[in-house]
What does this fold into?
Amino acid sequence: MNKRSFLAITLTALTMNTSAVFAANSPVTFHFYGAQDCPPCMAFKRDHLADVQAEGRALGFAVEDNVIARTRDVPDVGVYGERDPILRIAAQQLELTYPPIFFVSRDGQVMSVHGPHWQDALKAAQSLSQK
It folds into this structure.
């Protein structure tokens, strides 16, 4: 690897979201999709996200935190950017695609969908990461 390639890779890694970098290297991912105007979403983010992230670091699973500005935009395909496609796959297992939404994937495949129940998604991520 030459010096220019090394610098390009290093700069790219530094500018990427830490959870996205970790997710790329982890076969199990805990996904959280929410909106800033969603009180339960912001309560999870404020009160529980750090604990889930710590558990992920300890057990080796990734945690993706995906929050947009408005709940009303959730049905719009593409609103979550590059992380939107896997949400649309998970949403097929939900009666209503409404935040907060929690699910778990392994190697890019949706393994379990838990709707607004983050504790169930955490248990699934813990279990899958130990297999």
Q: What stands out?
A: DSSP finds six helices and four strands in the chain. The chain has a mean pLDDT of 85.
